[in-house]
Amino acid sequence: MLKVTTVSHYPKIGDTFEEQILRRSLGQLDRKEIDASQLERIKDEVTRTAIEEQIEAGVEVVTDGQIRWQDPLTYILGQIKGISLKGLLRYFDTNTFYRQPICEAKLEAPESLVVKDFQFANALSSKPLKALLTGPYTLAKHIQDKHYGNLEALATALAEILGEETKRLAQKGCEIVQFDEPAILNFKKDFPIFKKVWTKLAGSFPEGIETILFLNYGNLQGLYPQILEIPVTTIGLDYAGQSENKRVLKKGFSKKLIAGIVDARNTKMETEEELQSKLEELLQIVSAEDLSVSPNYGLEFLPRENARKKLANLSKVVREFREAKVKV
Amino acid sequence: MTTGNLPFLPMTSVGSFPKPDYLKRARTQAYKGEIRERKLRELEERATKEWIHFQEEIGIDILVDGEMYRGDMVTYFAETLKGFEISGLVRSYGNRYYRKPVVVDEVKRAKPMTVEWYQFAQKLTKKPVKGMLTGPYTIMDWSFNEFYSDRRELTLALAEVIHEEVVDLEKAGAQYIQIDEPAVSVRPEELPLAVEAMGIVTKGIKAKTLTHICYGDFEKIYPGMLDIPVDHIDLELSNSDFNLMELFKKYPFTKEIGLGVVDVHSHVLESKEEVKRRIKQALTVFKPEQIYVDPDCGLKTREVQEAKDKLRVIAEAVKELRKELAPSGSFKN
Questions:
Q1: Which pTM was predicted?
Q2: Can you give the residue range of the structural domain that contains B248?
Q3: Which residues of chain A are within 8 Å of residue B89 when distances are taken between CB atoms?
Q4: Which of A13, A40, A315, B161 has its CA 20 to 30 A from that of A275?
C-alpha cells in the first residue's frame, strides 16, 4: 500500500564531527593508527546510523546504505576472481568514479558477495530491508573483457554468480533483492541480450522473493512495454529527472512499480503539490497496492542533511496522501 | 599571440599541486577560527613561492601557481561569486569529499577572483605563469541549481562572469589563460552548450587560451570537442594507456595539445623511459610544434614528494628527448 522506499546508497558522512567518523577512520587506517578489523566495526556503526536515519525519516523499506561500497561496480566485481581493477573512470554522468574492471580469466565468485552485509543490516532494522546488487548486464557492460569474447557470455557468467547470491540471500531471510541495471537505458539496442541474461538470472530466483529491476540514468523510451517481459516482480525508475518516463508509462503496467519522484541529484526541495500530483499520475498507472515511491537515485549525491530533509518531505507527503486519498 | 619563445616540447602543469602539510594544518585551523586569515594567506604565499621555485628548478617552461589558495576548482569560484551558497559534504571518489556549490540567486562577479594570485605568482618568475579558471559548463555541472530554470540558462550566466575574469587576467598580463572544463566529456549531447559558453568566455581574448578535459569517454565528444573555441586542449592520456591515439590518427587534432604523460591518481612513479615512450608515441600522431607535455591532471591528490617526483620524471624525459630529437633552437612562438 503506497510505500516509501530508498533505492541504493546513503551518504557515508555528514557535516558534524560525529557524522564524519568513517572519513576520519579511513585516514587513520592509511596512517596505520587503526587496523582493517577496526575499520570494519566503524562501517558497521555507520550502517546502523544509515538505517536508523532512513527509518526516522519515515522510509518503510530501507537499504543498508551501501556504506561498504566505493561505487556500484567494484564492491561486487572486486570480490570476484578473474577481475582486476585499473584506472579511474567516471560512472555515467555523475561526478563519481570507479576503477576500470578488467576480466582476464574465468569468473569465480567467493562464498558470498553481500550476504554477510545483508544479515548484519537486516538484524539492525525494524523495517524490511532489501539487499542490493548491481545487475549482470550493467556489471558486464563496464568490464573490459579479455576472456569471454562477447558481452552475452560475460553477462551470463555474472548472472550465474548473482543467481547463486540471490539464493543464498533468500536462505538467510532476505525477501527483497534489488538489481540496479542503469546501463540498459544507455545501450537500448542490447535489449535482446539483456533479456536472455535476465531470463537466465531469473531462473535462479527462489519462490516468493520480490525482485526489483531498478532503472535510472536514463528513461524507458524505446524499451516500453518490452521491459515488462523481464521476469521480475517490480520495476523501478526515475520519475523526477526523466520527463520521458511520464510519457512512456501507460495503463496496464503489469508489475509493481517503484517511482523515483524525489530528485536525489539536486538540493532543490520538491514542493508538496509537486509530489502529490506525481502520486496522482502514478495511481493512474498502477494501484496503490503496487506502488512505492523513492528518490530517483541513491542519496550519496546529496549532503546527508539534504538527504534527510528530502526523505522526510517525501514521507510526510505520502503519509498525508494515504490518509486523505487512499481509503481501504 | 605573443607567448614568447618556447623550447621543443614545452613543459607545463595542469593546475593544482598538493598543499604542504603546514598549509593543510593552517587551512583546518582557519576553518575552525583558530588562526587569522592573514596568517593563512602568509602560508599560502609561502607554499606558492616554494612551488614556483621548484618548477623553475626542474626547468618547467609555463608555470602554474599550484592553487595553494583553493580548496576545490569549483567551490573556490562559487565562494567568490555572488549567487552561490555552499552545501554540506558530498563524496567524489574513495575518501574524498567536497562541498558542492548551490546556486540560490542570480550569479554575479563582485570582484576579480584570481587576478591577485596570478600577479603574485608572476612576480616570482620570469617565465610565464598561466591564469587558471574553471569553465562555466563545469561550474554548472558540479553545482546544485535551485535558481535558474535549466542547465543552459545557468551555464550561459556563468560564461559571462568567467569572461569578465578572463578579461581582467589578460589586462594583468597573463599570456596563457586556462579555462578548465573537465565536465565537458560527460554528456556528449551537451557539448554544443559547452562550446557556446566557451565562445562567450574567450570572446575577443588575445592571450593564448587553453582548456583541460578529463575523465570521460573522449570518443563520444571527438572530434566535436575541437569546436571548443580555445587554442589548446589539454588531455589526460596516461590514465587510459594512451589508447586515444587511434582516434587522433583518424581525425587530426587541429589544436595544440597538452599531453598528459603521467597518471596523477596512482602512487606508482612512471619511469623516465615510459614517459619518453609516451611522448614518442604522441609524436607519431601530432606535429612536434603541437605538443606541450604535462601530467594527466592536477597533482593535488598526490603527496608533495610524489608530485615532485612525477614532475621531475617528466622534466628528465623531456630534456633527454630534446637532445635526441629536437631541431636546434626554439621554434614555438
A1: 0.88
A2: 61-73+109-325
A3: 13-15, 20, 303
A4: A13
| Total number of domains in chain A | 1
Cα B113 to chain centroid distance, Å, stands at: 16
The answer to whether residue A101 sits within a structural domain is yes
In a domain, A60, yes or no: yes
Cβ–Cβ below 8 Å for A268 and B145: yes
Please check whether residue A16 touches B, CB under 8 A. Answer: no
Has residue B29 been placed in a domain? no
Q: B145 to chain A: which residues are within 8 Å by CB?
A: 266, 268
* pLDDT tens sequence across A262-318: 999 999 999 999 999 999 999 999 999 999 999 999 999 999 999 999 999 999 999
- DSSP track, B226-241: GGSSSSEEEE--GGGT
Backbone φ and ψ for B326, nearest 5 degrees, come out as: -75, 140
Closest CA to A10 of A221, A234, A301, A292: A301
Select the residue of B92, B145, B266 nearest A97 (Cβ to Cβ). B92
Look at residue B47 and tell me if it is in a domain. Answer: no
Is B306 inside any structural domain?
Answer: yes
Instruction: Calculate the dihedral angle through the C-alpha atoms of B178, B92, B71, A19, rounding to the nearest 10 degrees.
Output: 170
The complex's ipTM? Answer: 0.92
- A-chain residues near B215 (CB < 8 A): 88-90, 97
